[in-house]
Structure to design on (634 residues):
């Protein structure tokens, strides 16, 4: 019988593993809890970058090259906005824009982010359950040597250049797990931490009050987002370097220490597997770079196999 | 010396004559006061259809075939919105959308509609002064045998089908002429009523408190929007038929009776010019259908000539 899985995901790496999991599991067995700490308002529109990346990926609409946005996108809105003197640093494509405009309209009409996300997924034929970590606004602030920066400003406008000293998740104390989140975790056989940025993608999810305890109550398997000492996309490697010292699978495992039961690391980091050895942590070495849809499915299958193994060892313990 | 002109305009016909006037006059000699009674909020965005039609026409960006929207437009936003289950009855193109998103953002930031319109015109190289009739929200309601309908619902969603009984301009009593409107009228040698719908394009402008008296204090020249018994675009002919009986130049002249000094009617209506004969009304018969930019300029020149004639006759009276 297929496992019941809850996956915690941020942007592109997370979206790809989730797509692999969706290919391996019946849709009712997979719930994805997505980071909303990067959500922000831009041009008066409610933008949810990670939710959209996961949704577009599952709907088969994601840009296969960039870590965001849609395939077959056009940029006439942005060009026209630029001519009017509007802000164009955050790139909104013509097709993508419909999601932000409609999400904003529905929010103003009183719908919650999880209701809107559910409606969008139904319209786009996404059958896996996609949930924001919370329906309340939370804002990830990157504390840098050049001051505190909201995530998108650090990430897009400043190109991740400022040196990071830490993070703050504003208003997290008032956030509650979105409806269905705790129920899904209670019903899950295992939790998968996708290869997303630990600091700005998965930590905000885990910081929602009640979330960490609920995650910790299940066997947790992570896929390291650090491969060969750096992140495939985004600033996770740079952040580890600035905050912890040496980016690598051991740093990732240490980051999730209290909750982690097993980790998948890349073959490039095989010689560093020894750093991870511990009685309580299972380590699988594999190819974690997901270039094709087949890669996603294969890696997801290995993650599920690892979860199965942990469950069996628990059953026989 | 070139005349100082204030033109009152609604949508496409008005925009075309304004474009002709702009080609005949130095930009500082032309102020255009545009209807905002059709303005509405759609998808949470502030839409100003007539302001945009005039602005796009003067900027050389208007769709040459439709009476609205931009040339070289794409529709990926709308297609994507439809797939999400959003409302697509009001057609918003990708390029056009930038104006609505940026206008909405600026309005929320506290800018007035006339400030925003001025900024857009500067960005798009429109040197003629374009002013909304008012910065306060006014809503044209079409009273029909099927109930009261906001203009866009009557016009776009219902295709002008319901039989019209009258009009209401909601909140007009709280509207004030936009900054610069009364000053421009005071300084004008003549006022031009463009060939726009009298009921839903020019009447809202004239209904702004203080506007009619200011217009009436100057010589007023109209171009009839009714040609051969019908409007070239839009429901003006149908409205005349439902409200007044026979649509024609006499009905137009009667509509503006108190303020009108001269009218340009189309050659197709030459045999009905006699209905207009009056000592106090000058009538010019010409070709009023503006197919080309040359047509616009020629008709504008004739309108200016007619205004000149009235001014001279006043001077020698």
């Amino acid at each position: 019988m297929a496992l019941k899985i809850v996956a915690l995901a941020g942007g592109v790496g997370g979206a790809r593993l989730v797509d692999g999991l969706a290919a391996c599991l019946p849709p009712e067995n997979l719930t994805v809890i997505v980071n909303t700490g990067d959500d922000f308002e831009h041009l008066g529109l409610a933008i949810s970058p990670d939710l959209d990346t996961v949704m577009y990926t599952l709907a088969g609409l994601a840009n296969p090259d960039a870590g965001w946005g849609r395939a077959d996108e056009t940029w006439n809105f942005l060009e026209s906005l630029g001519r009017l003197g509007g802000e164009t640093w955050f790139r909104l494509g013509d097709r993508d824009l419909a999601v932000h405009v409609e999400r904003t309209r529905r929010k103003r009409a009183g719908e919650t982010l999880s209701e809107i996300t559910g409606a969008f997924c139904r319209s786009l034929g996404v059958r896996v359950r996609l949930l924001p970590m919370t329906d309340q606004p939370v804002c990830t602030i990157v504390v840098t040597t050049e001051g505190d920066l909201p995530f998108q400003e650090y990430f897009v406008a400043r190109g991740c250049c400022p040196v990071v000293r830490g993070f703050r998740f504003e208003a997290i104390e008032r956030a509650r797990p979105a409806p269905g989140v705790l129920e899904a975790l209670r019903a899950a056989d295992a939790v998968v931490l996708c290869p997303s940025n630990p600091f700005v993608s998965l930590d905000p999810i885990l910081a929602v009050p009640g979330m960490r305890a609920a995650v910790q109550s299940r066997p947790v398997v992570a896929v390291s987002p650090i491969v060969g000492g750096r992140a495939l996309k985004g600033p996770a490697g740079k952040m580890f370097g600035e905050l912890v010292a040496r980016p690598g699978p051991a740093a990732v495992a240490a980051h999730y220490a209290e909750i982690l039961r097993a980790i998948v690391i890349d073959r490039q980091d095989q010689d560093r597997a020894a750093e991870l050895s511990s009685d309580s942590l299972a380590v699988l070495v594999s190819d974690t770079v997901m270039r094709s849809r087949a890669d996603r499915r294969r890696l997801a299958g290995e993650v599920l196999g690892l979860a199965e193994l942990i469950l069996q060892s628990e059953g026989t313990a």
